[in-house]
Amino acid sequence: MARSGCPRYDAGMPLTNLPDRYGAVSKLLHWSVFVLFAYQFVGANIMTRLPRDARVFGMNGDFFYDWHKSIGLVLLGLAIARLIWRRTTPLPQWHPSLSEPERGIVHRLETWLYWLMFVMPVTGYLFVMAGGYGVKLFGITDLPNPIGKQPSWSGIV
Ligand code: HEM
User: How many angstroms is it from 64 CA to the middle of ligand 1?
Assistant: First the structure.
């Protein structure tokens, strides 16, 4: 295989982004968020439809609720990490085949997706805390409720 003469290219996948490709950290953040988001939608559909006392793959509704809330909070942490990484690491250059309007559309879509990465877990968290349902982190330990039960919020969250 041809060697570029640049040690960062030749050492395999770089950790940080290069002008022509994403590095390992960006890829890891991207794919972990993708996989966990996919889980959130599948898990949420199971938990909200599962009859009481029924099981899927041996797990009951409580299990799915605990894991949905916990993974949601992990996703919030990943969203923060992604934003910090995005703000502090240069991106690869745009592919030359993309026109200015196409770059604008991609940029706007990316901004929306970033907002969603925060809005989904934060509203979910506010919903369960204001409702007094709480979060049992991965079914192990109850998280404190910093806002307390908020009956007056019903209908908002
Ligand atoms: C990126 C993170 C999240 C995504 C993508 C997500 C997505 C979803 C989806 C698609 C539903 C099903 C809605 C329906 O069909 O009625 C749902 C329901 C739910 N989510 Fe999340 N969620 C996230 C984070 C959270 C967090 C952090 C919590 C709480 C700490 C949470 C708590 C809930 C609860 C309690 C429900 C059930 C609501 C009901 O029973 O009507 N979610 N979520």
Answer: 11
Q: Is the CB of 72 under 6 A from ligand 1?
A: yes
Per-residue pLDDT in tens (0 to 9) along the chain, 157 residues: 445 555 555 568 899 999 999 999 999 999 999 999 999 999 999 999 999 889 999 999 999 999 999 999 999 999 999 999 999 999 999 999 999 999 999 999 999 999 999 999 999 999 999 999 999 999 999 999 999 999 998 777 5
Q: Whose CA is nearest to atom 43 of ligand 1?
A: 44
Query: What is d(CA 120, CA 72) in angstroms, rounded to the nearest whole number?
Result: 8
Ligand 1 proximity of 50 Cβ (cutoff 6 Å): no
CB of 69 closer than 6 angstroms to any ligand 1 atom: yes
Residue (of 113, 106, 99, 148) closest to 128 by Cα position: 148
CA distances from 92 to 10, 23, 66, 129 (A): 18, 9, 38, 40
